[in-house]
């Protein structure tokens, strides 16, 4: 398996990912393409779902007048995924900036095989589209989530 460039040590990264936010999904037939495997756009939907859970778990609130947008997204497909497959998708914040956060993702099948990985850069912006700093409480929550599990 070719390791994506955003992963330095695969074994350590995989262990770290399993401490992140978890989402269990079953691949629906509607999420497959004409070749009978999961469409390439679907992991990004799963990334959004688990990222939303992560934001909720870490206390994110729109009350601070900021909104979170994805500025960059990447997916690396390791194995083909077929309809009815049951996957566990993890999200983990790996680098927290003033108004941004890089999040990594890993998806495993029921046999604990890595199916795909991903990363996104999310940025909090204000209503006019300018970067808007995290409030300190939330930034600390994201950083502590990351720092408490460094392997």
Automatic annotation (TrEMBL):
Its EC number is 3.1.2.-. The keyword Transmembrane does not apply. The keyword Secreted does not apply. Keywords: Hydrolase. This is Acyl-CoA thioesterase. One of its GO terms (molecular function) is hydrolase activity.
């Amino acid at each position: 398996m070719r390791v994506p460039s955003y992963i330095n040590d695969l074994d350590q990264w995989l262990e770290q990912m399993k401490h992140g936010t978890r989402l269990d999904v079953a691949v629906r037939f509607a999420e497959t393409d004409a070749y009978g495997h999961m469409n390439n756009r679907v992991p990004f939907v799963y990334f959004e779902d688990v990222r939303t859970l992560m934001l909720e778990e870490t206390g994110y609130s729109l009350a601070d007048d900021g909104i979170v947008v994805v500025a960059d997204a990447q997916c690396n497909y390791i194995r083909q995924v077929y309809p009815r497959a049951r996957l566990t998708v993890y999200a983990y914040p790996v680098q927290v900036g003033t108004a941004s956060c890089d999040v990594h993702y890993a998806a495993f099948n029921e046999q604990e095989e890595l199916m795909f990985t991903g990363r996104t850069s999310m940025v909090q912006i204000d209503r006019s589209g300018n970067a808007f700093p995290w409030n300190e409480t939330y930034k600390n929550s994201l950083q502590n989530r990351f720092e408490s599990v460094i392997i």
